[in-house]
Design a protein that fits this description.
- By secondary structure, the chain is mostly helical.
- The chain has 2 domains: about 60 residues, Winged helix-like DNA-binding domain superfamily/Winged helix DNA-binding domain (Arc Repressor Mutant, subunit A), CATH 1.10.10; about 80 residues.
- The chain contains 7 helices and 3 strands; from the N terminus they run H-H-E-H-H-E-E-H-H-H.
- The chain has a 3-stranded antiparallel sheet with strand order 1-3-2.
- The longest helix is centred in the C-terminal third of the chain and has 37 residues.
- It is globular and about 55 Å long.
- About 10% of the residues are buried.
- The N terminus and C terminus are likely disordered.
Length: about 180
């Protein structure tokens, strides 16, 4: 297929309506869906469920569910129990207070330093993305996905910016020693 003024396939690659297909295993798909369900509150903290029950809801065997739960357990999102059941990790109020106290101290400084390294265009894109979270026509899944992309995009930009600055920062640090 010839695309005037561009290389073969360029028109499709730049079209936002068509996204590349992700090749993911069943275990990865189950892990992603269970993580989304837990983080969105569809599976509530303290909720117990059987592996076969979740497998039935997802239309898969219990083996990928078991593997996904192992991964989610390592992330602290679930606790597996003997007898092929699991529970969504209960929230402890004291732990939550401690986590958010720490985040309130660290994140403003980290964000300010990262923002200083981003271009105006990158900052404008992040600002536009953040403003779109309040769109009343969006469903919770769309908001969650947009929020996730916002933070992933910001993290990627910060990693690139920090990577570019790292040699200079290291040199400045070692000169102070």
């Amino acid at each position: 297929m010839h695309v005037p003024g561009g290389e073969r396939g360029t028109a499709l690659a730049s079209n936002a309506a068509v996204r590349p297909i992700e090749s993911r295993s069943v275990v990865e798909q189950v892990t992603t869906e269970l993580r989304r369900s837990i983080l969105s509150g569809d599976l509530a903290p303290g909720q117990e469920f059987a592996l076969r029950e979740i497998a039935g809801m997802l239309g898969t065997s219990f083996i990928p569910v078991r593997e996904a739960l192992r991964s989610l357990e390592s992330e602290g999102l679930v606790v597996t129990r003997p007898g092929r059941s699991a529970i969504v990790t209960p929230l402890d109020l004291d732990d939550l207070h401690g986590i958010y106290r720490l985040r309130r101290q660290l994140e403003p400084e980290i964000a300010a330093r990262a923002a200083a390294l981003l271009s105006d265009a990158e900052l404008d894109r992040l600002d536009h993305d953040a403003a779109s979270f309040g769109d009343p026509d969006r469903g919770i899944d769309e908001i969650y996905e947009a929020h996730h992309r916002f933070h992933q995009g910001g993290v990627m930009m910060m990693e690139i910016s920090f990577s570019a600055e790292a040699p200079f920062a290291l040199n400045a640090f070692t000169l102070k020693l």
